[in-house]
């Protein structure tokens, strides 16, 4: 089969070449990939730092061409959306059936491929916060891929949503996705009504400021670290006595929280197929142009998701 592999001598560290077809385990289905999407972690770390010859890629959508031999998962011909630690950027992909979501027939699989890591992380981070109906939720890095899904899902869940972005020009777009208020200066968070939950996607000073915005028993879910900065909490920030107490910081990694993920992906795909969830695809091209697309995403010149069609 054809696949994109890590090649640090090639432009963009990627080469389109021929590799052996994957051999599925008993609990895996073989998928013919139609489209895959790019994520920030892939363009910043996996591509430039990956092992030579490996096939990268977390997100892909396609059609089942060989079902799992243990009887689990969807049947041949089923359109699906998949996630895994690697192997998505190829014509064929072997995937554990418990992380396969089914897709309504006739749905464009390109936008569906944008769901797994970004929308899956958004949904499960909100689950970690707990009930959000009638509560206040803060989203940092709201203009990124995960952030845009989080705004939509939090608003759908009945939350009052505050979006934090460094770019004031994104305000109208983020309001259209469900944000009730926009914050562009972290110092502003000190003066807002405290929030019940935070989906934190930036790290560094953003995490410190967002934690300070939590009400008593609030939960901050750290699901992204795009700043590359560490966190330094000022003395007293983590005190409970005399302050808002029992404020939690929870770490999160989607592939370590995969129980039931296939059902979540099925639900997200159905929402998208009905037009009730917008994947915000801002760039779509074929896989001969993936290096250029990755560079655009890494340079933060893609206001949404980048989707690559396998051709």
TrEMBL record:
PANTHER family: QUINONE OXIDOREDUCTASE-LIKE PROTEIN 2, SHORT-CHAIN DEHYDROGENASE/REDUCTASE. This is Zinc-binding dehydrogenase. Pfam families: ADH_N, ADH_zinc_N. GO terms for molecular function: oxidoreductase activity. Residues 9-308 form the Enoyl reductase (ER) domain.
């Amino acid at each position: 089969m054809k696949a994109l592999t890590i090649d640090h001598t090639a432009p963009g560290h990627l080469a389109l070449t021929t590799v052996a077809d994957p051999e599925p385990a008993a609990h895996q289905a073989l998928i013919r990939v139609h489209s895959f999407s790019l994520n920030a972690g892939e363009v910043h770390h996996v591509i430039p730092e990956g092992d030579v010859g490996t096939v990268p890629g977390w997100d892909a959508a396609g059609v089942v061409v060989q079902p799992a031999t243990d009887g689990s998962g969807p049947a041949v011909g089923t359109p699906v959306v998949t996630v895994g630690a690697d192997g998505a950027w190829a014509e064929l992909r072997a995937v554990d059936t418990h992380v396969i979501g089914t897709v309504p027939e006739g749905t464009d699989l390109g936008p569906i491929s944008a769901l797994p890591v970004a929308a899956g992380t958004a949904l499960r981070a909100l689950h970690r916060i707990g009930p959000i109906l009638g509560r206040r939720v803060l989203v940092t890095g709201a203009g990124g891929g995960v952030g845009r899904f989080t705004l939509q899902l939090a608003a759908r869940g009945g939350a009052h949503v505050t979006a934090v972005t460094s770019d004031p020009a994104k305000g109208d777009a983020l309001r259209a996705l469900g944000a009730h208020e926009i914050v562009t200066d972290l110092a502003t968070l000190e003066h807002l009504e405290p929030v019940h939950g935070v989906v934190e996607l930036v790290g560094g000073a953003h995490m410190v400021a967002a934690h300070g915005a939590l009400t008593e028993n609030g939960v901050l879910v750290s699901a992204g670290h795009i700043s590359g900065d560490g966190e330094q909490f000022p003395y007293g920030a983590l005190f409970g006595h005399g302050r808002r107490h029992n404020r939690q910081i929870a770490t999160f990694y989607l592939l370590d929280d995969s129980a039931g993920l296939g059902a979540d992906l099925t639900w997200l795909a159905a929402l998208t197929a009905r037009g009730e969830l917008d994947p915000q695809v801002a760039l779509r091209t074929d896989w001969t142009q993936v290096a250029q697309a990755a560079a655009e995403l890494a340079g933060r010149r893609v206001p949404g998701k980048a989707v690559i069609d396998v051709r």
